[in-house]
Amino acid sequence: MKIARWTLFIFIIGGSVSSQAYSIETQSIQDKINKTIHLADETARDNHSELIGELPPLSTNQTSKYTFTLDDCINFALRNNNNIKIAKKNIVKQNAIQKVALSQLLPSLTLNTSATKIDDEMLKKISGTNGRVTENLWDADATINQTLFAGGKNLALLQKENLMLDSLKKKLKWIVEDTIFNIKTIFYSALLARNRIEVQEQLVELLSKELISEKNKFKAGVVPEFNVLRAEVALANSKVPLIRAQNSYRITIEELRQVLGLSDIETESQILLDIKGELKDKPYNINLDKALEIAQSNRAELEELYAAIAAQDKVILANRAGYLPKINIFASYGLANKNLSHTFYDDAAAGWKVGALASWNLFDGFGTTAQVEQAIADKNILKTNKSNQQLTIEVEVRRAYSSFVEAKALLEASTKVTEQAEESLRLAKASKDAGVGIQLDVLQSQYDLTDACNNKISALYDYNVAIARLERAVGK
């Protein structure tokens, strides 16, 4: 991967995008979320299809390196992230539960058969002299059963399962949104660590050159040995933050692998992951009131609770069906014979029968009443959860907006400070070259510029994360 080189003298922000372009990027992310939910629907219809990533096949003991952009990470995670996989499989499971509920509204066809032979001694004792007990008995029949009325219970349960399916789809949506936010945060953290490595490497390189220069001057008798010692100490100190930045980058890449679902264990090979991208100063504007309004209508967590509350209404209706009678009808056609010989079919009696069965549980120990009360209580709990979620979302939006305002102000301030630090280093080096300044001024200016560059990188990171957090808060 080609890595852009940053100098300590000129720090250039890696490009910018227009508000229109950023709007298109946001819409693209939303399209990916909707596509993922659509894929989950397809999976529910065909649970034999397996959603996999687009990595080429890896052989055992093979080492492969992949370079991902932010969009690559998002696309890969939508297919391979374990939390998303679990959410999709829950939709497949709920689709099966929905079919079970539908089956209760359809007729059932049952085939029954039985054969009986009574022991001779037992037959003699129970037959006596006044009657005759059949020694052998065989019968078979096919019966169709249909529920005509169950107090609306079966229909209510089917509607409840439909609403629960919709609730799980909304849950998948916010899991996808959470995953995308996590990917952005970790990806930006990796860019932050990588950029800090570049800045620290530039500092180490400059201080190494400074040390060589001071050694040469010392040999020429121009400067005392103290200048060489000071340069050596400065170079050693500059390597500490470089080592920390390198370790931070390694850890962040591992965290990115986790959220992507990219595992060495499953592929039985070593996968090396790298990233491609830059932290950018993207123009972004949103009004707090508008953000609050969008969040209350867009957040999938609220949509999930709305569907769950509607499903609980159907549970209440299904439980109240226990107060009402139940009516079933049936029709059957069968054969019966008392002879189990090879001619039993020819001698068998054939016929049909139809009937209806009605039952009304007049007293069940207040079990139905308790079930209705429990369902109502569950609904009230969901409504309280909804109110709490609305408050949580409001606070989340306000915090995210406040962090965005802070990050934007810090980015503007750090940009100005970096420009001033660059000018200060230029003047310090010019003074030293002219014989007016001293080495300490140059070293201090170099450290000041390094701090300014690191602060600007941190400000860019905070700004990009603040945008991602605000978008997550409003449900984009």
Strand tally: 6
- Class, according to the CATH hierarchy? Mainly Alpha
Quaternary state of the chains: single chain
- Count up the helices: 12
- Average pLDDT confidence is 82
Describe this protein's structure.
The chain is of the alpha+beta class. It has twelve helices and six strands. It has a single domain, classed as Outer membrane efflux proteins (OEP) (Up-down Bundle), CATH 1.20.1600. It has helices at residues 19-45, 70-80, 82-103, 120-127, 153-219, 225-260, 264-267, 288-298, 300-320, 344-347, 367-433, 439-474; strands spanning 63-68, 108-117, 136-149, 270-275, 326-337, 349-359. Strands 2-3-5-6 form a four-stranded antiparallel sheet. A two-stranded parallel ribbon has the order 1-4. α11 (367-433) packs antiparallel against α12. It starts with 18 loop residues before the first helix and ends with a helix. 26% of the residues are buried. Mean pLDDT is 82; it is low at 1-26 and 43-61.
